[in-house]
Design brief:
- It is a single-pass membrane protein.
- Keywords: Calcium, Cell adhesion, Glycoprotein, Membrane, Repeat, Signal, Transmembrane, Transmembrane helix.
- The chain crosses the membrane at residues 603-625.
- This is PCDG2 protein.
- This protein is mainly β.
- It folds into 5 domains: 25-124, Cadherins (Immunoglobulin-like); 132-233, Immunoglobulin-like (Sandwich), CATH 2.60.40; 241-338, Sandwich (Immunoglobulin-like); 346-443, Immunoglobulin-like, CATH 2.60.40; 451-553, Cadherins (Immunoglobulin-like), CATH 2.60.40.60.
- It has 8 helices and 50 strands.
- The strands form 17 sheets. Strands 1-7-6-3 form a 4-stranded mixed β-sheet. It has a 4-stranded mixed β-sheet with strand order 9-16-15-12, with no helix packed on it. Strands 18-25-24-21 form a 4-stranded mixed β-sheet, with no helix packed on it.
- Strand 41 and strand 42 form a beta hairpin.
- The longest helix is centred in the last third of the chain and has 37 residues, at 599-635.
- It is rod-shaped and about 200 Å long.
- The relative contact order is 0.05.
Length: 709
């Protein structure tokens, strides 16, 4: 009762181990499947999406594809189901003639992740080939003197299937004089031998017809047959003898076709027909029979086609020498093919980017490469490198895979496109090389602000200009590309004389042309200071500003105005139809120096008189102070008094007279029209009245203590 439970437990544990093994292999990027040979195209191999944990949408979004080693693509990925299916009908015997376990390898490339998963598919054998003899008609020549029990090697049948489906046994039928013995060869192969079971008598029977049947272990079994005709000969005393029991030959794979690789020789002591020796190949594979040719008369083995070390590195032949009486000898020939550096490395681009952003971080993978050299030893050792001067480097991924990654950040403004050359060289002498070029375009990032052609702009515009007149054109360039380099211009916000700046000037957004929106008047506005902003089309946008100074140039657009007579008198004269002649009448009793009796003129006369009086009073006061100072100098010492509280540096002395260094002034302009009157203080209203002169060692004060009091 417990035995079934134990068996069930063992099955569960075995299933669990299989699941764990598959999960472990998937985690390390390797999957293993098996599929029988000769399956039709599109047959299911394995559920790759499930085993790798990929969603079906990711298969199309990430660009998943299957790449097989070699020229033929035996597998494909079904995009809708995520299944690995056969892309061609697979013949195990054609692909794996020299190996017992046939394994095909391919890679699953996930381009979106730059990931590679190794897939191994074992091609299992089916019994699709029957044993086959190289020749269907065999002939054996046996002397009637041959003793019973003698053995004669027979040609072997060949079955390309593997395992139980390969050749398993032989059968002999047709005559009681002969039986069949099968010997095991050193490689485990079966070698049939014809055994003489009963003495022969040529006079009784000169020929014996036999049938040799070879069978495999398939279900159902397949068979192959060969007919054997045994000719009974008269007595033959000596058998041929080879000069060597085993011949060993080493030839390079590049040996020319038609070359003689080795010549075997066998001697027979008999004479005549019994001493004539002929050579034949008894044990030879189908591949070897297509490569080597044995001359039956000379024993020379020549090359029928070129050797390829990568296709086969050794061949075992068995040669038989037979005389005319049917006696024979056998010898082994071992041909070893040595490798030559005849294969250049092959660079296959499994996945590559065509575009990369210039702000991609260092270490970004841009290409996945597979590099392989079919040669062996040092001839197959491959060294990969990149041409210098590019911001990329090579990294070993696993086995024969390499990744091309960025070595630093890129700058599109310096280099916008790269042609990255990957070179692979083997270790041969001389080494063989190959190369592949990766074309990569650098995508722009908005990392440059517009730059104006000048640090500041200035222009001169004559007043009374026409509205819409072109003032000047500012220009800015952006080192970026495309939309990021598109520059647009606008005015910075501001106000002029209480009005928005945009009511005075405008800038064309595309060209940077600055236009005047109104006619300027020099008497109202002499200078306009503004800022123009240049902004690119990036997101977010980058910008820069530049100052623009607009100078209004004066023109002679104002005529002189007559202050007198007043405009009212002139207008009245014009209204009455009279012409004012500029002459006024004065009364007869007017005194000398009298003016016309105008109100404004009267006030002007009074103002001038008042100013004149003040000026005369000031001169008299100054003269009195001068006289007083002179008199004081006559009575007192020079250093007895000083102007207290006033720095000496504010005065200058000339010939004993001191005066102020600075004078102050203002201008007053009056017109008949009060709107035109101006009162202006000059910016430099004070000025030096006397040239600078070093003061004397002991200056005399302008005013004494009494004067100040």
């Amino acid at each position: 009762m417990c035995a079934p439970g134990r068996r069930w437990g063992r099955r569960q544990r075995g299933l669990l181990w299989a699941v764990l093994l598959a999960a472990w292999e998937a985690a390390w990027g390797q999957l293993r499947y098996s599929v029988p040979e000769e399956m039709p195209k599109g047959s299911f191999v394995g559920d790759v999406a499930k085993d790798l944990g990929l969603q079906l949408l990711e298969l199309s979004d990430r660009g998943v594809r299957v790449v097989s080693e070699g020229r033929m693509q035996y597998f494909a990925l079904h995009g809708k189901t995520g299944h690995l299916v056969t892309a061609e009908r697979i013949d195990r015997e054609q692909l794996c003639r020299l190996v017992e376990k046939c394994v095909l390898r391919c890679e699953l490339i996930v381009e979106g992740q730059m990931q590679v998963y190794r897939i191994e598919v074992e091609i299992t054998d089916i019994n699709d080939n029957a044993p086959n003899f190289k020749e269907n008609e065999l002939e054996e020549r046996v002397s009637e003197m041959t003793a019973p029990g003698s053995r004669f090697p027979l040609a072997q049948a060949h079955d390309p299937d593997a395992g139980r489906n390969s050749l398993q046994s032989y059968e002999l039928s047709g005559d009681e004089h002969f039986s069949l013995a099968v010997q095991a060869g050193p490689g485990g192969d079966q070698r049939p031998e014809l055994v003489l079971a009963k003495a022969l008598d040529r006079e009784e029977a000169a020929f014996h017809e036999l049938v040799l049947r070879a069978m495999d272990g398939g279900d159902p079994a397949r068979t192959g047959t060969a007919r054997i005709r045994v000719t009974v000969l008269d007595a033959n005393d000596n058998a041929p003898v080879f000069s060597q029991a085993e011949y060993t030959v080493r030839v390079p794979e590049d040996v020319p076709v038609g070359s003689v690789l080795v010549t075997v020789t066998a001697r027979d002591a008999d004479e005549g027909l019994y001493g004539h020796v002929k050579y034949s190949l008894k044990k030879v594979s189908v591949m070897a029979s297509n490569i080597f040719h044995l001359d039956s008369e000379t024993g020379a083995i020549t090359l029928l086609r070129s050797l390829d070390f990568e296709e086969g590195d050794s061949y075992d032949l068995e040669v038989q020498a037979r005389d005319g009486g049917g006696l024979f000898d056998t010898a082994k020939i071992m041909i070893t093919v040595t490798d030559k550096n005849d294969n250049a490395p092959v660079i296959a681009v499994r996945s590559a980017l065509s575009e990369i952003s210039e702000d991609a971080p260092s270490g970004t993978v841009v290409a996945l490469l597979h590099v392989q050299d079919r040669d062996s030893g040092a001839n197959g050792d491959v060294r990969c490198s990149l041409d210098g001067g590019v911001p990329f480097r090579l990294e070993k991924s696993f086995e024969d895979y390499y990744r091309v990654v960025t070595a630093r950040e890129l700058d599109r403004e310096q280099v916008s496109e790269y042609n990255v050359t990957v070179r692979a060289a083997d270790g041969g002498s001389p080494p063989l090389q190959s190369s592949a070029v990766l074309a990569l375009r650098v995508l722009d990032v908005n990392d440059n602000a517009p730059v104006f052609a000048e640090e500041r702009y200035s222009a001169r515009l004559a007043e009374n200009n026409a509205a819409g007149a072109l003032v000047l054109t500012v220009r800015a360039t952006d080192a970026d590309w495309g939309q990021n380099a598109r520059v647009r211009y606008r005015l910075a916000e501001g106000r002029v004389r209480g009005a928005p700046l945009s009511s005075y000037v405008s800038v064309q957004a595309e060209t940077g042309a600055l236009y005047a929106l109104r006619s300027f008047d020099y008497e109202q506005l002499r200078e306009l200071q503004l800022w123009v902003r240049a902004e690119d089309g990036g997101a977010p946008a980058l910008s820069s500003n530049v100052s623009v100074r607009l100078l209004i140039v004066d023109e002679n657009d104002n005529a002189p105005q007559v202050l007198y007579p007043p405009q009212a008198a002139a207008a009245a004269a014009a209204g009455s139809g009279a012409v004012w002649s500029g002459v006024e009448l004065a009364p007869r009793w007017s005194e000398a120096g009298a003016l016309p009796a105008a109100g404004l003129t009267r006030w002007l006369v009074l103002a001038v008189a008042a100013v004149s009086c003040l000026f005369v009073a000031f001169l008299l006061l100054l003269l009195a102070l001068r006289l007083r100072r002179w008199r004081r100098q006559q009575l007192l010492p020079a250093d007895s008094g000083a102007l207290r509280g006033v720095p000496v540096s504010h005065f200058v002395g000339i010939d004993g007279v001191r005066a102020f260094l600075q004078s102050y002034s203002h201008e007053v302009s009056l017109t008949a029209d009060s709107r035109k009157s101006q009162l202006r203080f000059s910016a430099g209203s004070c000025c030096d009245t006397l040239p600078a002169r070093p003061p004397p060692d002991e200056p005399a004060p302008l005013l004494g203590d009494d004067d100040l009091a």
